[in-house]
Amino acid sequence: MNTTQPLQLLAPLSGVLMPLDSVPDPVFSSRVVGDGICIDPTSQTLCAPLSGVIGTLQDSAHAVSVTADNGVQVLMHIGLDTVNLAGKGFTSRVEMGQRVEAGQPLIDFDADYIALHARSLLTLMLVVSGEPFSLLVDEATCVESGAPLLQVRQGEPGTLQEVQQGSVLFSGPLILPNESGLHARPAAVFAQAAKAFDANIQLHKQQAAANAKSVVAIMALQTVKGDRLQLSADGPQARQAIEALEKLLLSGCGETVEAPLALEPANVVAPSVPGRLRGVCASPGSALGVVVQVASQELDIEPTGTGIEIERAALDRALAQAANALRALQGEAAGTVQAQIFRAHEQLLEDPTLLEQAQALVAEGKSAAFAWKTATQATASLFQQLGSALLAERATDLADVGQRVLKLILGVQEECWSLPEQSILVAEQLTPSQTASLDTSRIAGFVTVGGGATSHVAILARALGLPSLCGVAQQVLALDNGTQVLLDADGGELHVSPDQALIEQRQAANDRQRQRHQRDLEQSAQAARTLDGHRVEVSANVGSLRDVEQAMPLGAEGVGLLRSELLYLDRAYPPGHDEQAALYCAVARVLGPERNLVVRTLDVGGDKPLAYVPMDHEANPFLGMRGIRLCLERPQLLREQFRAILACSGLARLHIMLPMVTQLAELRLARQMLDEEVRNLGLKQTPKLGIMIEVPAAALMADLFAPEVDFFSIGTNDLTQYTLAMDRDHPRLASQADSLHPAVLRLIARTTEAARAHGKWVGVCGALASEPLAVPVLLGLGVHELSVSVPLIPTIKACVREWDLAACRTVAQQALCQDSAEQVRDILRICSSTANPATLVMEQ
Amino acid sequence: MFDRLQQVFWKALTPDLVPDEPRQPVMADGLAPAIVAALGGVENLKSHQPVALTRLRVELRDVTRIDLTGLSGAGVTGVMTLDNGVVHLITGLQG
Fold first, then answer.
1. Catalytic residue check, A817
2. Residue A461: count of CB within 10 angstroms of its CB
3. Which of A72, A83, A544, B95 counts the highest number of beta carbons within 10 A?
4. Does A29 touch chain B (CB under 8 A)?
5. Phi/psi of residue A341, each to 5°?
6. Residues of A in contact with B55 (CB under 8 A)
């Protein structure tokens, strides 16, 4: 089997050939997806160019790949931007995983429809597994479907794997959890893991596929959070590879994936005024310090080499030294973000594409330095041109590695920085290598002209807990070293030479905030009572037993929201009864029989899909099968969860809460199921059953829901996005999707009125409850319980204690009549500062 | 000029409100005479429009009157004959 027979690929279509360079789509002409040939078709059936197994086959049937037994993988893509046709005009004749013979028809398409509705009919045939090939016919001629077109030279002997027929394995669809997609660090972790397997492994994203062992190829896929990826593998260890890599991908490839990172860099930055430079907050906080300008060194490079062998040796030596240095840096920074960044850099050094380019230039007689610089710059500029801000930032990684190796080739010493205390580093862009050699104990903050919230500086700054501002105007680079500056990352401002009054004011504010927080902590065990003696229950939003254990010493009076879905996510089958029951019982035991435990039933949907609940793709998952809708469609899942929750009956004051309820029928159906389960288990007491108010329909119909529920809990995040029709993660709208919008407050008011009329209680478990400014409005509207994120429990309890309920009602009535969320915020700031001057400081 | 610009802007902002301008197929003028001749002359040509970056879509009354050699001589590299007298002429990327 280990022969290197040349493999001929047949023309999949009749048509006119076009070189890949001429294809008017950079994704293909840049060869990011793979090298190959383009055909302008004159036939309407796409046929298999080789025998093998159908790999990716898009639902929309405009692209298909065939993998031969020897690992050669060929992707065919019919037309440009045809993904937008969503399948119209295409008819697939085969299925994924099916074995096909060379010449077998795969997809029929309606050429006239596509010509009239898509950008182009130009069809690509790409050897995505990366083997070199030669063209068997002249370019710019016509070919007939089925005629030999390309000759693929297969890899060096030994790399061929003995594979069995049809042994290409596929993972299920995997939803990428990483906030910034598979950028350098996670891509490196992933590629490293892939290399360990004796298998040809591909990572697929829509029609694009990447060699899973190449960092550059993975990065070029331009993945973003939520992308639906798929793995394929063939070879002796295909199964192990898929299993291990699937797990790795879903776990974030070494990145923390639950951590919310809502810092979208706003592209529009308000104009700066003298002495004050505006920027975008990349890491929150504020600091007073002195400017230290960090400029990158310009290096002189002679293009011509002094002999191929000498230059080749110089390049190899520098690469080896750089790899050593990077490993040493990883060791020094073990377990930190920096260590992972340098691990990624080390991987970039080993990238086959990059090395090949540099070595080819050396072979042409160029100097090692020139060859390396050209290769890294070419790839970096490719990243920059691909039109993705995220990938453009990854170009910084390449430039950084490039500079490191260049300095080693040229024998240039690394600059040493001796930093003054409280340094605020200012740079066009700070590279990980620059920041690594710095004494972080002397750094007070970062200011950069380039970069965004996903740049390394931002990641590093957040990891160090230092304030960081990016997107600042160029003029910041003209500031003298040693200039005193006040970096206010929260406010998005850099104050140059701030006057003493401002400095003192800021320091005093910081001190007050610290003192206040200390006081809140000390009083956290006491009940939250308004000045006129009304008790407000402040409970915790939790997702795990650990959260509950942390919440109790901070003064939580119960659990107002137990998110049960964390039990269900990231696994291949649903959690069993015992596992579920164990969690609910453990949480209930921590609380005890006197405290409330509100368990929300499974709240997943197209935006948070489960491997074992197959769902059709939804154009808009937030308006699709989410929450109770999904549970009622799969009643077995809900019944099992009810049974598991009921296992902790009696251990705490048990409440069950249904998410996304829109229709009365949904509540009635769920209640009927719950009653049945209670009867089956022979329990004397039925737990309280309530619904979340997060769909405007439920708030508007609260008067009809109220008689049939035991309580309401308002999910302000979803209620806001559904009321204002603004995606809370939308980069431009997120800041306007404000839960203090009068429209949202009116829906809350309607809900509390209905509840009051029927003697039911209302809680708020959305993010609004955790916002100190919102506390008086919520209390004034008649909310009884605030369920907040664990660390904010002492703060919110303290807020409650500052207010008189009658004053809250007045403020709430005023808020309902405002025009906009900003106006509501304005009156709340004014009221808060008169009620308690310290609150104003909190909000700054 | 200004009106046109405003219209384009308005269209971009509110794609539902401004109707698409019907794309008028330019009649035989604007077509290379050699191509028109190879398609059987103006009277055989019902309509024609450039489509899909590389193609000229024509509707013919009688497709049997196509002169393939003539088209090839006029720079057409490929011909795709479809139903109802529709023919795609592959002319390559323009400009």
1. no
2. 28
3. A72
4. no
5. -65, -45
6. 40, 115, 121
Residue ranges per structural domain of chain B: 35-95
B12: its two tokens: 């971009």
Predicted ipTM of the assembly: 0.74
Q: Count the domains in chain A.
A: 5
| Statement: B35-95 belongs to CATH 3.30.1360.60 | yes
Please state, in angstroms and as integers, the Cα–Cα distance from residue A25 to each residue in A74, A151, A802, following that order. 19, 25, 62
Whether A586 and A689 map to the same domain: the answer is yes
From A24, A111, A142, residue closest to B53, measured CB to CB: A24
Integer Cα distance of A188 and A177 in angstroms: 16
Provide the residue range defining the domain that includes A10.
Answer: 1-165
Cβ of A139: how many Cβ atoms within 10 Å?
Answer: 10
In the three-class reduction of DSSP (H, G, I as helix; E, B as strand; rest coil), residue A138 is classed as coil
pLDDT digits (tens, 9 = 90+) for A658-711: 999 999 999 999 999 999 999 999 998 899 999 999 999 999 999 999 999 999
Name the nearest CA neighbour of A13 among A54, A50, A52, A44. Answer: A44
Distances (CA, A) of A349 to A134, A216, A305, A431: 29, 10, 21, 16
Question: How far apart, in whole angstroms, are the C-alpha atoms of residue A447 and residue A469?
Answer: 5
A84 and chain B in contact, CB less than 8 A: no
Q: Is residue A206 part of a domain?
A: yes
What distances in angstroms separate CA A195 from CA A199, A213, A238, A486, one per listed residue? 9, 5, 12, 47
Residues A17 and A141 both lie in one domain: yes
Length of chain B: 95
* pLDDT exceeds cutoff 60 at B14: no
Put simply, the chain A residues between 38 and 67 with a CB less than 8 A from any chain B CB are 40-43
- Pairing relationship of beta strands A785-789 and A711-714 according to DSSP bridges: unpaired
Q: What is the DSSP letter of A617?
A: -
pLDDT digits (tens, 9 = 90+) for A281-328: 777 778 889 998 887 667 778 888 888 889 999 999 999 999 988 888
| Residue with tokens 């288990």, as numbered in its chain | A681
